Amino acid sequence: MEIIIVGAGFGGMSAGALLSRDGHEVTILEKNEQPGGRGSYFEDKGYYFDMGPSWYLMSELYDNFFQEFDKKAEDFFNLEKLDPSYRIFLDKKRVWDISANLEENYQLFDGFEENGGEKLKKYLQSSKELYEFSLEEMLYRDYNSILDLLNGKLLFKGYKLRLWENLQHFIDRQFESEEARKILQYAIGFLGGSPENAPSFYHLVSHSDLNLGVWYPQGGMRKVTQGIYELALSQGVNFHFQEEVELLEVHEDRVKRVISNEGFYEADVVVVNADYAHSELDLLKPPYQSYDEKYWESRTISPSALVAYLGIDSRVENLAHHNLFLNKDWDSGFEAVFNPDKKAWSEDSSYYVNVPSLTDDSAAPEGGETIYILAPLAPGLEDSDTLREKFLNQILDDLEEKIDFNIQDKVVVKKIFALNDFKTRYNAYKGTAFGLSHTMDQTALWRPAHKSKKVENLYYTGQYNHPGIGVPMTLVSSQILSQEIR
Predict the structure, then answer these.
(1) What is one process in the GO biological process aspect for this record (predicted)?
(2) What is the mean pLDDT of residues 146-165?
(3) Alpha-carbon distance 319 to 390, whole Å?
(4) Are 373 and 392 in contact (CB under 8 A)?
């Protein structure tokens, strides 16, 4: 079959490799200048910046994908386990390293509260059990009707693990200290949610970072992008860059032509890896939209973000490779992102700081440092240069105060990426950085489907589908998709 894929993000590239391997003629049309989607990168004055994903977690999901081609991740990039896995800042004095050694983390939690280590051990055992169950029974399955959920194992596990309970309540029942609660609840940020709106099911994420560890591909996440791109090329996938799809022309319930700014293509099957909402609302006429504007307005959209890429001409002090700065007013911080009545450019935001050059000499010139700062923002907020600068300056002031190090006077490269950029570069709905949050009614069956409900030969892959947000999850999404097309 002739297959056209819209978008060369991780979902599009992985789907292309799988479908080409299965004997199809695959062409990927990408609006931007390079592969990777949100996993693209840029370089300035010798400073290299991964623009999007920066955490390498759930390594076995990468392995499962590469095994489809009798390959392994190490054929494309070298992995290094980080220790510490990451550093947590609650304030200037309360700073802790989360170790790659679990025993050290048990001791850390003992310092937070009585029997904290034992509580963490029990919590991580539950997380491990659910994670492994998810891989075996849930992750690689598609969900097209309620019948797909009526599985005895799923129903029993759902009852046993209280999946109707939200993550915040689930953790608060088991831990008493602010420190333990915040450290464990922050992980839902990997899935674009908040502890209050995410089901307790997602405490399985703690297994991925605390039990399995945090890894770093030498050369950055761009090496992962490049590896999957090279794999797709080796399978015969054709890539067209700087070619934006403008319309999916449907006739008799089938996409007959894919129309781009360069011309048009006919295909037997069309797979969309572009932003799902954009694809439905802007590329399809209303009669062929499975999910209309009303649907998207009713969804819980994951945060957008301000991302600052800074190159400094000095080595930084008191930071690890990954650093999380958690705000004092925890609830108001989440409300500023998720509560429609209170969303705003917060004055006390939690934020994340990545310094890959501490691990990777190729990330910055000798004597310099590459710094990536990300702070969540509510999707749909007004965006302007004035708002960006004010927000970034307050974050940098807070950062410098907490690490006793001046960054602003040492900046030689600076780029800010925020809501309007997510919209223009990725066609992201309301400027979302991730897609749909992982709430109970946006999990498994209740995420947008891999197959269009209205157009017979139209499919989707990426972070909007099951299983959801994150690079390894998009690889799984493409594996599900290839099975469905096969």
Answers:
(1) carotenoid biosynthetic process
(2) 57
(3) 23
(4) yes
Strands 215-217 and 79-81: antiparallel
Contact 91, 328 (CB under 8 A): yes
SS3 assignment, position 33: coil
Q: 367, 327 in Cβ contact below 8 A?
A: no
Ramachandran assignment for 236, one of left (phi > 0), alpha (psi -120 to 50 degrees), beta (any other): left
Query: Which residues have a Cβ under 8 Å from the Cβ of 263 and sit 6 or more positions away?
Result: none
Looking at this protein, which amino acid is placed at residue 126?
A: S
Residue linked to tokens 């007013």: 329
Cα dihedral 354, 220, 378, 412 sign? positive
Domain 2-39+58-78+218-299+435-485 matching CATH 3.50.50.60: the answer reads yes
Which CATH code fits 301-426?
Answer: 3.30.519
Note the CATH number of domain 104-212: 1.10.405
CA distance linking residue 205 with residue 270, whole number of Å: 33
Confidence of residue 152 (pLDDT cuts 50, 70, 90): very low
DSSP category for residue 203: G
- Measured in Å, how far apart are the chain's first and last C-alpha atoms? 11
| Mean pLDDT computed over every residue of the chain | 93
Q: What is the pTM of this model?
A: 0.94
Give me the helices (H) in 175-267, please. 178-185, 205-206, 221-234
- Per-residue pLDDT for 318 more than 50? yes
What are the structure tokens assigned to 130, written together? 């659910």
Reported in sequence order, the residue ranges of 389-467 that DSSP labels E, i.e. its strands, are 411-417, 458-460
> Which residues, in sequence order, are bridge partners of residue 251?
254
Separation between Cα atoms, residue 107 and residue 116, nearest integer Å: 8
Both structure tokens of 471: 């690079």
Question: Could you tell me if 378 and 304 are in contact, meaning their C-beta atoms sit under 8 angstroms apart?
Answer: yes
**Closest among 445, 326, 401, 352 to 50, alpha carbons compared:** 352
Count how many Cα atoms sit within 13 Å of the Cα of residue 277 in the half-sphere of its side chain.
22
Question: Quick check: 165 and 159 in contact, CB under 8 A?
Answer: no
Q: Which residues contact 9 (CB under 8 A, 6 or more apart)?
A: 36, 37, 38, 39, 273, 462, 474
Lowest mean pLDDT among 27-41, 106-120, 132-146, 384-398: 132-146
User: Domain-by-domain residue ranges, the chain?
Assistant: 2-39+58-78+218-299+435-485, 104-212, 301-426
